[in-house]
Design goal:
Largest sheet: 2 strands, antiparallel
Helix content: over 70%
Radius of gyration: 19 Å
Strand order of the largest sheet: 1-2
Length: 227
């Protein structure tokens, strides 16, 4: 059972669902929580540097909170992995999914406005847990809450295919571009639903996480052996 849980967590279907969730969350915080992107921290780090240079001390915490929350998510994930890696029941990644679900459920019922900074930090926490836990599909490294690395890998594999006509490189390139397209799909769906349902729209991501949780229980289909 443990082996198929590990394989399921690295399946392409799981990657697709989490990429949709990643794109959705980026749109959700931008539209509904103050016009910020909480998934990745490069922008916050840059803005932190700008405000340090300008000596805007009062704004430093605004950018420090999500950065620290992202770091906290990594630490919590690694603690869960270390503590429950050999757990005979749930896979440690399923425990991470449960934690993500609970945080997002609380966010769904937190009014927008006064608590947006806290919510955006919580989304950073969730995204860091996701990106730390789900780092490979079919043996290839990837990310589900940001696209830069996936775009690099996709284009690199496309180059290898054009040079060497390596079908494996072609397959990997298409899979990476697929993850990016599903991230965009998540953003498109997130735009429509967030505008319609505001704070509660993040419950759609809870549904996606629930699907991932269940899928990890399904044994992978083994290819039939020839007689």
């Amino acid at each position: 059972m443990k082996l198929h849980l590990e394989k399921a967590s690295e399946s392409y279907v799981v990657g697709v669902l989490l990429a949709i969730a990643g794109g959705y969350l980026d749109v959700y915080t931008y539209i509904c929580r103050g016009g910020v992107f909480a998934n990745a921290q490069t922008g916050n780090i840059v803005l932190l540097g700008i405000n340090l240079a300008d000596r805007n001390w009062s704004k430093l915490l605004l950018y420090m909170y999500p950065i620290l929350a992202f770091m906290a998510g990594i630490l919590v994930t690694e603690f869960v992995r270390r503590k429950f890696r050999y757990n005979p029941g749930l896979h440690w990644r399923q425990i991470v999914i449960v934690l993500e679900f609970l945080v997002l459920w609380i966010i769904a019922f937190t009014p927008s406005g006064a608590y947006d900074d806290v919510v955006n930090s919580a989304v950073s926490f969730v995204c860091s847990m996701q990106v730390e836990s789900f780092r490979r599909f079919n043996g290839s490294a990837y990310a589900t809450t940001m696209c830069t690395g996936n775009l690099r890998s996709a284009t690199e594999q496309l180059f290898y295919y054009n040079i060497n006509k390596d079908q494996e490189a072609r397959r990997k390139s298409l899979q990476y571009y697929g993850i990016i397209l599903f991230f965009i799909l998540g953003a498109v769906i997130g735009t429509a639903l967030t505008r319609a349902f505001l704070e509660r729209s993040v419950l759609i991501v809870c549904l996606l996480l629930l699907m991932v949780f269940v899928i990890m229980f399904i044994p992978p289909v083994e290819p039939e052996k020839a007689d």
